[in-house]
Specification:
The complex is a heterodimer of chains A (245) and B (353). Chain A has 245 residues and is α/β, with parallel strands linked by helices. Chain A has ten helices and seven strands. Chain A has a single domain, classed as Thiamin diphosphate (ThDP)-binding fold, Pyr/PP domains (Rossmann fold, 3-Layer(aba) Sandwich). In chain A, strands 2-1-3-4-6-5-7 form a seven-stranded mixed β-sheet, sandwiched between helices. In chain A, strand 1, helix 2 and strand 2 form a beta-alpha-beta unit. Chain A is globular, with a radius of gyration of 17 Å. The N and C termini of chain A lie far apart (44 Å). In chain A, 55% of the residues are buried. Chain B is built from twelve helices and 15 strands. In chain B, helix 4 links the parallel strand 4 and strand 5. The chains are: A alpha/beta (245), B alpha/beta (353). Chains A and B meet through strand 1, strand 2, helix 3 and helix 5 of A and helix 3, helix 4 and strand 9 of B.
Chain lengths: 245, 353
């Protein structure tokens, strides 16, 4: 019998705690596959966020730090400066990276920290029960925008990738999605590139991954995938935002 | 080694480098700016790394990362900046990471002022950040002692895998005194728990302060408290000066302890016998020593002297435990008590004794 698929070595055998239909699991798997394919598991150090992926240190089979809310890029900076030959990545959600940790991500990028950031954008706070995120879409109903996000009072959803693309120290910025197979494959290529950029010492690299939250969006998993395609992608266009040769 | 004349802040930085510290993450704030400036100049020359972070919050989280990765690392700041670091300090304690944190205290609350103060005592010794925790707090009273305590502080941090704070003030940071950098063997301990990359077949290293199961968290906190018991046993430091036969004992640390020594000399000329208990560690607090002097028949009262509205005085009262009256004199907001004013206070106490 031919084995056609197996768990990546860079994932532990701990079952994910993620909700049914949440795409964190797919994104974890892509990151782990990339680590395996690049043969860097033994020198990779990851930083987990606060939010749904807070337990990422139990899933990624490498040395890990768990950071305070939003501070993963600062923690990664400390690690990378001590171990410049190791591969350091952060895995952060939209509340963590785009709200409380916006200063940390901008300045880590601006210093050109040779780290890789996986930014999972599902337009909502998941772990705390569905509050408005900086990335929540206009009109989106959440527990803290119960009448829908109003730009006059809550501002507009923030496009982090476009913003970081203006920062000199950023070497590679791409936005991808995981709502179908074609896009999952593209996402994997982008994540691989973001690790290669670090290995080549080019500077800061980030992949923003549009992701689902069926539980807090109040949708089925299938409806959620469709919601990414029909509502998120028009506002958050996919593609490479910055690439330095 | 010969003595050199150095400013307090620069002496702290030089002591840290001589103690093997190679990583410094900080943010500008008066009156401690000479520390990051010295580090920025000197660390690259010894293969180290200095980063001026985007905030104190980022700086302490860089410390968290570097300490978890196994480095001998420090940060410094002054009162408002130390407030911003409290979340990070709590995480560092929770994750059991060693590092040195220097607070060159200025007056508060709020933006306060930039003159010397001792009004961060509560924050330093009672927690400051959230959760059940402590750290060793070292309170130097001279620049020489600052140098020695910085060097010791890194070793204490490593011994217990817990942050250590050096609590100075704007006076100690800004003044110049001759100091000697004593030769010492720098032995950096093995850190098998540090994240360096997980070799096949070896256990993973995880730097973490999250224990979602309540029993697991209680077990973890109990483990931390067993360390604190060890610290109390092994790390408490105190200086007793002229306490034999003293009728009133002044309790003071850092800059105010120096003032107290002047008061003791002035009082002696007037036939008043005073002593000084100077806690060198503010946590663990030298309560046994204070209790012992409280038991002595010749001790009629204590006067706690602080550049605050009275913070350490609470620990002095707990230590004396009602055995003798405990008085307080303090100036705050950057005002420094004069020896004459303290002596007047002593005389008032003698009148009611």
């Amino acid at each position: 019998m031919t084995k056609v698929f197996e768990r990546p070595k860079a994932l532990t055998d701990k079952p994910f705690h993620y909700c049914p239909g949440c795409t964190h699991g797919i994104i974890h798997c892509l990151v782990a596959e990339v680590i395996d394919e690049l043969g860097i598991r033994e020198k990779t150090i990851g930083v987990a966020p606060v939010g749904c992926a807070v337990f990422a240190y139990e899933y990624f089979n490498c040395d890990m730090h768990e950071a305070a809310h939003g501070r993963a890029p600062a923690v990664a900076t400390g690690i990378k400066r001590v171990h410049p030959d190791n591969v350091v990545f952060t895995y952060q959600g939209d509340g963590d990276l785009a709200s409380i940790g916006i200063a940390e991500i901008v300045h880590a990028a601006n210093r050109g920290e040779k780290i890789t950031t996986i930014f999972v954008n599902n337009a909502i706070y998941g772990m705390t029960g569905g509050q408005m995120a900086p990335t929540s879409l206009l009109g989106q109903v959440t527990t803290t925008s119960p009448y829908g996000r109003n730009p006059d009072t809550e501002g507009h959803p923030i496009r982090v990738s476009e913003m970081l693309a203006t920062v000199e120290g950023a070497a590679f910025i791409e936005r991808v999605s995981v709502h179908d197979i074609k896009n999952i494959n593209r996402a994997k290529r982008a994540i691989k590139k973001a690790f290669q950029v670090q290995l080549e010492g080019k500077g800061f690299a980030m992949v923003e991954v549009l992701s689902t939250c069926p539980t807090n969006w109040g949708m089925t998993p299938v409806e959620s995938l469709k919601w990414i395609e029909e509502n998120m992608i028009p506002y958050y266009p996919l593609g490479i935002k910055k690439e330095v040769d | 080694m010969a003595k050199v004349l150095m400013k307090g802040n620069e002496a702290i930085a030089e002591a840290a480098i001589q103690a093997g510290c190679r990583y410094f993450f900080g943010y500008p704030i008066t009156p401690q700016n000479e520390i990051p400036a010295y580090m920025a100049k000197m660390l690259p020359k010894v293969g180290g790394c200095f980063i001026q972070a985007e905030s104190e919050i980022s700086a302490i989280n860089m410390v968290y990362g570097a300490a978890g990765a196994g480095a001998r690392v420090m940060t410094s700041s002054s009162s408002p900046g130390i407030s911003l670091k409290q979340e990070g300090i709590s995480y560092i304690v929770g994750a059991e990471l060693p590092c040195l944190i220097v607070n060159i205290v200025r007056g508060g609350p709020g933006l306060g002022g930039i003159q010397p103060a001792q009004s961060d005592y509560f924050q330093a010794v009672k927690g400051g950040g959230h959760g059940d925790y402590h750290m060793v707090v070292l309170a130097p009273a001279s620049i020489q002692e600052m140098v020695d305590l910085v060097m010791d502080g890194f070793d204490i941090a490593d011994r217990y895998r817990n942050p250590v704070m050096v609590l100075g003030d704007g006076m100690l940071g800004q003044m110049m005194e001759p100091v000697e950098f004593k030769e010492r063997d720098i032995v950096l301990p093995e850190k098998p728990w540090a994240t360096t990359g997980n070799k096949d077949g070896e256990p993973r290293r995880i730097i973490n302060s999250l224990f979602i199961d309540a029993q697991a968290l209680e077990d973890h906190v109990h483990k931390l408290y067993r360390k604190y018991d060890e610290m109390k046993k092994n790390e408490t430091r105190v200086e007793c000066y002229n306490c034999e036969n003293a009728e009133i004992i002044i309790v003071a640390y850092g800059t105010t302890a120096r003032i107290a020594k002047n008061v003791i000399q002035m009082a002696a000329k007037e036939g008043i016998n005073l002593g000084l208990i100077r806690p060198i560690t503010l946590w663990p607090f030298p309560d046994d020593t204070i209790d012992r002097w409280a038991e002595a028949d010749h001790t009629k009262a204590f006067l706690t002297l602080e550049m605050s509205m009275g913070q350490m005085v609470e620990d002095v009262r707990l230590s004396v435990n009602g055995k003798k009256p405990v008085y307080f004199y303090g100036r705050t907001g950057g005002m420094v008590p004069t020896p004459r004013a303290v002596l007047e206070e002593i005389k008032k106490i003698r009148e009611v004794m």
